[in-house]
Write a structure and sequence with these properties.
CATH superfamily of the largest domain: Response regulator
Shape: globular
CATH topology of the largest domain: Rossmann fold
Number of domains: 2
Largest sheet: 5 strands, parallel
Number of helices: 11
CATH class of the largest domain: Alpha Beta
Strand order of the largest sheet: 4-3-5-6-7
Number of strands: 16
Distance between the termini: 46 Å
Helix content: 25-40%
Strand content: 15-25%
């Protein structure tokens, strides 16, 4: 999203003579705000989220620049793919801060990477806005860390209460990824919610990143005859688990309850009809009925030829929030001032709805309970009555 910097003095000449009564015409100077985009556009499951985030943020920057929303300030995105490798994320953050001199960073895609790299930005005084990190306590790393993605501990208890009330769930089994901060964090939240609701926990199974065969874990779970299976997984693993559970003859009455990371448009492509009925919680879904949301969906579809998912929506709002902070700061290099202006935004009208920041700089968005329609390949709002 590079911007062309105009010359400090532009003079309109005709045949070598200075026009307009001999006076020079001064072109407006363009100031460029360099912003780091750290999204995983490769790296397995992470790319399902990272590509959507990157596209939505670039869409937002294009809209802002085209509309001259920031007047003489143009936003320039410096994107780097960390490949879902936390070591790479650390290297990228260091380069963006030390060499590229970015005023802020949007990302990274995975909570695992954020826990490794965000402290670097915090120490350097560079604001970071996450739009897919949902692990608990992430923003507590420092006052320069923000996120538009609602943390799991603010979403899952609502989802589980809904499932208990509507499906009569009493016995649950859990399966989660051992070696990812997001999935481990989601699992911890899920276990706590299960305990607080007094549900019987009949089994816990785990897996490691890269696993594709979950039949052993699912066979053990099936033998315990749970009313629900709770997933602390990324979307690709969730899709495989849903498919394989159906292949193993899981009773259709067993409810699958997912975490934030399962809310990807690709879940339905990967799981097919097996994703039918999965219950999740989210800050947004494609059918959300608001003018701002509908305009975003239409613009995204026009630009990319596909529908946005929740991570695109959260990334889009993150981009507009940062742009508003830069507008208020009226400075393209002062990261601390940008951070302070970002923190001062309290009534933002975004794709996710109207929100501000909590004391820990999480977006104050009301979570929504969604149910997967595997046939139509969309999430729909759950009936609350």
């Amino acid at each position: 999203m590079a911007s062309v910097t105009l010359s400090r003095r532009a003079v309109l000449t005709i045949g070598g003579a200075v026009a307009l009564s001999g006076s020079a015409v001064f072109a407006q100077t363009t100031r460029v705000a360099k912003i780091g985009l750290v999204q995983s556009t490769t790296g397995g499951s992470a790319a399902l989220y990272g590509i959507q985030q990157k596209q939505a943020i670039e869409l937002a920057f294009a809209e802002i620049n085209a509309a001259n929303t920031l007047k003489d300030i143009k936003l320039e995105a410096i994107h780097a793919d960390d490949g879902a490798d936390r070591g790479q994320t650390v290297n990228i953050f260091q380069r963006l801060i030390r060499q590229d001199k970015v005023v802020a960073i949007l990302g990274p895609t995975l909570s695992n990477s954020a826990f490794a790299a965000d402290p670097i930005a915090q120490q350097a005084g560079i604001p970071v806005i996450a739009s897919s990190n949902t692990a608990p306590n992430l923003t507590k790393m420092g006052d320069f860390i923000f996120r538009t993605s609602i943390p799991e501990d603010q979403v899952f208890p609502t989802v589980l209460r809904y499932a208990v009330q509507k499906r009569g769930i009493k016995k649950v089994a859990l399966i989660y990824g051992l070696d990812d901060a997001l999935t481990r964090g989601a699992h911890d939240v899920q276990k706590k919610a299960v305990t607080e609701l007094g549900l019987e926990q009949v089994g816990i199974e785990s897996y490691q990143r890269g696993d594709v065969d979950f039949s052993a874990q699912l066979t053990k779970i099936r033998e315990q005859k749970p009313d629900a299976v709770i997933l602390g997984t990324l979307a690709e693993e969730a899709a495989a688990i849903l498919r394989q559970a159906r292949q193993l003859g899981f009773d259709d009455k067993i409810t699958f309850i997912g975490c934030n990371a399962n809310i990807s448009a690709k879940l339905f492509d990967l799981a097919g009809p097996a994703a039918d009925g999965i219950i999740v919680g989210a800050s947004w879904f494609e059918g959300y009925d608001s003018p701002r949301s509908k305009a975003f969906v239409a613009a995204y579809q026009k630009r990319y030829g596909s529908s946005p998912d929740i991570y695109a929506a959260q990334g889009y709002d993150a981009a507009y929030l940062l742009a508003e902070a830069i507008r208020r700061a009226d400075d393209v290099t002062n990261s601390r001032l940008t951070r302070d202006k970002l923190a001062s935004i309290s009534d933002f009208e975004g794709v996710l709805g109207r929100f501000g920041w909590s004391a820990d700089r999480d977006a104050t968005v009301q979570p929504k309970v969604l149910i997967g329609d595997g046939k139509s390949k969309v999430f729909v709002a759950a009936a609350t009555s």
